[in-house]
Design a protein that fits this description.
Glutaredoxin, alpha+beta, 5-stranded mixed sheet
Length: 155
Amino acid sequence: MPKTTIIMGNKNASLEVTMVSNSFCNPCAKAHQFLEEWIEKGVDFKLNIVYTFSMADDDQQKLFFIHLMQLQKEGLNIEMALKDWYSSDYQKLAVWKDKHPVKNKAVDKLLLLEQVNWCKLNEIKGTPTFYINGNEIPNGYSLKELKYVLMNLDN
């Protein structure tokens, strides 16, 4: 996993779900809402979120991720920030950043490049892409089916 992975849920859980996401992807928004709901219901799992983006200076996905990474680094409420992002107004980056300010805006480009390279090495072709305990879930699984997988693995 890249060092920049966003982590939610129980960081020590034996069940680990990794979601590769795109901050401007509607199916990703639904997946985030689904997984947040399961965290709130107390399903015991660690959620790793890896975002896709390019290294272009003006890439909005990258700018979103940099801010999210800083929120996590500063120990701020990342769950609320993601919930706000994936609400009906989730594509308004400036408004979201104002609502969830960070103190430090410095960026380590090598960490960003590590995340971009992780996605390339794992041949991420679309989002969302899911892994459970390091194993990629085949295309075609719905969130509803993933729910039953999580319920069975959690017991």
